[in-house]
Amino acid sequence: MSRILLLQGNQAVVEGAIAAGVKFFGGYPITPSTEVAESLAEKLPLVGGKFIQMEDEIASMGAIIGASLTGKKVMTATSGPGFSLKQELIGYACAAEVPMVIVNVQRVGPSTGQPTSPSQGDIMQARWGTHGDHWLIALTPASVPECFELTLRAYALSEKYRTPVILLMDEVIGHMREKIELPDNYDEIPKAERKRPACAPADYKAYADVDGDGVPPMADFGNGYRWHVTGLVHDETGFPKGTPGATVAAADRQYHKIYDNLDDIVQVDEYRMEDAEYAIVAFGGGARTAYETVDMARAKGIKVGLVRPITIWPFAEAQMAALADKVKGILVHELNCGQYVLEVERAVAGKCPVCSYAKYDNEPATPAQLLAALEKSLAL
Amino acid sequence: MRIELRLSGTGGQGLITAGIILAEAALLDGKLAVQSQSYGPEARGGSSKAEVIISDQAIHFSKVTKPDILLAMSQEAMNKYSGDLGPDSVIVTDSLFVSKIPAHEGKVYELPITHTAKNELGRALFSNIVALGALYKLTKVVSYEALEKAVLNRVPKGTEEKNKKALAAGIAMVD
Question: What is the ipTM metric for this complex?
Fold first, then answer.
């Protein structure tokens, strides 16, 4: 049985979190993500979970790292200014390989920026916000139902690959209300579970790649398995070891556990691309405009389609390279001064023209504005 | 069938709630609806608008670009949110707060929305529900049954009868 509701994207994330089995949220409210915290504060206690409003975003990250180490699924939610504060401990979570989902409902930045206005300015920060080489996953929903689905998927990937996953939203999707059909009983939704050790506690090494897939089994703290968690470069035991060999081994394993599985991780959706001669690349709130632009352009006889990355990081390298072989030109639309377009240009490598329609004036582009940009930039 | 509505006024007048109720009523009727809003950082005051698009086809872009209805419940909102009206757009104002209406070829309804909420229901708080009654009568975009159900789903227990009266007062305002 299911129910039909009118929900905000932020509320659908909360439903996804409850359905995924989240039992801990540590956060600090901030527009335009506040509804995530507000709604989880109400719902988590009803499913035996804990909600803590921490003193700030840094402490929130510390709290969810600790809670995840006990084996629970955890979440925090924020927007740009808070996402900046979380970066140091996002790096720690990457280094210590702690599963978690971090929701960032982007707003106009930098700094306090425009709290209630939409933006997609944190694309690069989601990938490179913390220092040092590191690898993680970021997903971007473009509808309220997809907020629910991608929250579930974020936990599936986070637990499977033992990595932080960023649910990279924007104000358009976070605050928009639309129809969503949700199952009445979340018990019927399969729960993602991290790989746990099969060995005895005395034999456990927290970072040993026992199965050869790059993902070490992870023991729950408080369960008899003792292990050391650190942001220092460490060896299989988890204790610091800064030799060149240990450093390269840790980096290579963390890279390969994600980048050897791009077929599983990277999702790209398409709309009217079957016979398309041109493509708009857009995601999240920007994609909502692009669907209508594609229909308007098609009505004028322009054969254009939409390519919508759902997985923002890792970058959809193979998909964009293949697209360049198929179309005569690509227009990348994003609500920032032009970030994702740089990656598209790199993957396309000159095989076809890549143009940018960068919108950064606090408003999403209207379908007519995007159509005008398409016609002008690709000389249609 | 597709209709675009913009409900605007001052933060605290309940226009975002009104937009949500209208969208929920559309879902109850088996239609699709998308509701969005924009507002300033203030908790009260400042211009606020809620937009609702109702259609039987998929709705992608969530903002209103060709308003069929503009409800303005403050002068500032009237001035700020009327720039993209076309000749077929219908303006509905709260006559207590809006005295200057920009040049407009189409229909204009100046209705005593807040005045009626105060006089007939005792509190200005009901003005958003009165407005919904008027919008229902003007557009019939949702069925009365769905609208009443959506209102009663959203309002505090014990206020059901007053809210039904508020809807009726709004309906009675439009000939």
Answer: 0.94
